[in-house]
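Q: Could you predict the 3D structure of Beta-monoglucosyldiacylglycerol synthase?
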Amino acid sequence: MDELLWAAVILGALLKLISLYFGGIACFALKKEIPYPSAKKMRRFAVITAARNEERVIGSFIKSVQKQNYPIELFDVFVIPNNCTDNTEKAAKAHGAEIINCPFSVTCKGDALHQAMIQLQKKGYDAFCVFDSDNIVDPNFLLKMNDAFHAGAKVAKGRQLASNAQDSWVSGCYHIYFNLFHLFFNKARGVCGLSAKLVGTGFAVDKDVLNRLGGWNTSTIAEDAEFSAQCALLGERVWWVPQAITYDEQPTSFRVSLLQRRRWCSGIMQVGKLHLKNLVKRLHRPNRAYAADFSMFLIGAFAQALSVFPLSLTLLAAILDGKEGIFNFMQVMGLYFVFYYVIMCFVAAILTLHDENGKIPKKMRAAILLFPIFMASWIPLQVISLFQETKSWTEIRHNGQSKDRIPTA
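A: Sure. Here are the predicted structure tokens for Beta-monoglucosyldiacylglycerol synthase:
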């Protein structure tokens, strides 16, 4: 029994060291961000989205891009229809987008981007912006990205918000999660000179980076995380641009949310298995901080999955100790979960109050109360992903009907 407890303590301590690293970086969120100065030079952008059965929402996305506060002659909108069984291509054409047809089969978003970049890199664009088809793009997105590129960025990530936060407690939790992640991960890294997390929408890439990479070449179902790893291996920082905002429709069903997030978890672990070794080798070269930080991000996914083992060992030791051991275990765990629940609800409420200018909408109350469950659900998803890979990408249907997060003109 003592051996089990010591094993749990040692493994738990090692995992806590990883948590301390992320906690230390998160402290930089308290530092004030300095906005990028306005750029005089205007770059030419290609705005790209891979679309699979997005007939309902593709028109709203294209309209939002067309309303950019940016010279209209300096950007073009491209839609990559793939595996569609609806009229996505027809709807995209009707709203003024150019169509990129894929000559080869597409099994994931990375395949579509790979084939699109082959065609677009020959057309003289300075940078490429990638979005999901259900997005609504803030009117200043391209302008703020242009400022970041003028300041020195080669890869940049904008802020992502839920467009339908008040549709259900699940979409509300996504909204709170995004705010939490942007504050303690992206903002913190932005102010201390590290890379933001490049998620699959609302980011921009300079042509030079793609040229150095030989185009867009990702093979996992987490093309965004894999591209981030490739940038870290190049020594390229992903700049954080909080004023470049994308409104993204989130799942309203907890079951769909679990499927989506399991794919994210599995994809990140795939990237870890594929690139972690090379990232560690990169640590002796210039700009090693980007590789080191992204290595910790990848390790963190595995650490989260492994965090159940110290708890399991402690429970086993308690069972072997008899009724008294089980009672003590239940008592300690009960106090822990009460503390966890209160803290997470408090954080969710603070983030919502800040976002809503001091008011909590009635439709967000359930999201705040259930946010601890939403966050705790990441752990079993990581554990499942550790032992069983998700190899196929499944589309999530969007309707584009609710846009409660998007400010009106």
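Q: Anything worth pointing out?
A: The longest helix spans residues 323-355.
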